[in-house]
Amino acid sequence: MQAKTPEQSKTIMTDMVLPGETNPLNNLFGGELLARMDRAASISARRHSRRIVVTASVNHVAFNRAVPLGSVVTVEAKVSRAFKTSMEIFIDVWVEDRESGAKTKANEAIYTFVAVDETGRPIAVPEVIPETDLEKERFKAALRRKQLSLLLAGKIKPNEATELKALFE
Fold first, then answer.
1. Exposure winner among 4, 21, 111, 158, fewest CB in 10 A?
2. CATH classification of 6-128 is 3.30.565.10, yes or no?
3. Taking a C-beta distance cutoff of 8 angstroms, is the pair 73, 28 a contact?
4. How many C-beta atoms surround the C-beta of residue 90 within 10 A?
5. Which of 103, 104, 100, 79 is CA-nearest to residue 90?
6. What are 73-105's pLDDT values in tens digits?
7. Domain ranges of the chain
8. Which helix (H) or strand (E) holds 54?
9. What separation in angstroms does the CA of 63 have from each of 124, 143, 160?
10. What's the pTM value of the predicted model, to 2 decimals?
């Protein structure tokens, strides 16, 4: 199985915020944004693994900025790291200024997907080879996030969380 770069899984989805997708303040519903991010992350994970993928978890979501009615929203997803059968997907959400066209980062999220075979059993995925500084940073941080998640779930012991321990030494 040949390793892939995050760029090979890059998925960009651009859409407009319509009236039926907004709350009483005329901003995009958070749940609508979550669904958009899930779709983009799913495509990204599938591009990386070339397998059926399922959402395993939403690890982090930051709603940093409201997305108003009529906004052009771009959701960009890339696989930041692959483990045995799972992939962490980092998602950036951008809002385009109506007049200038300038894009501002509005939100971000981290999802985990698992590749499965036709019977729903987890299946191995290719490794990730980060290229840019940002990809390398996200790649490295993904292992810490995974260890923290496993530690909190009681699936590993504190002394096994080597990347987490290294932060405090």
1. 158
2. no
3. yes
4. 25
5. 79
6. 999 999 999 999 999 999 999 999 888 889 999
7. 6-128
8. strand 52-63
9. 32, 23, 32
10. 0.92
DSSP classification of residue 57: E
Residues 6+ apart with CB under 8 A from 35: none
Q: What whole-number distance in Å separates Cα of residue 61 and Cα of residue 108? A: 6
7 residue type, one letter: E
Structural element, H or E, at residue 59: strand 52-63
Q: Each residue's pLDDT tens digit in the chain (169 positions)? A: 899 999 999 999 999 999 999 999 999 999 999 999 999 999 999 999 999 999 999 999 999 999 999 999 999 999 999 999 999 999 999 999 888 889 999 999 999 999 999 999 999 999 999 999 999 999 999 999 999 999 998 999 988 998 888 888 8
Number of other residues whose CB lies within 10 A of the CB of residue 169 = 4
Edge-first strand order for the sheet with 72-82 is 11-16, 72-82, 86-96, 103-116, 52-63
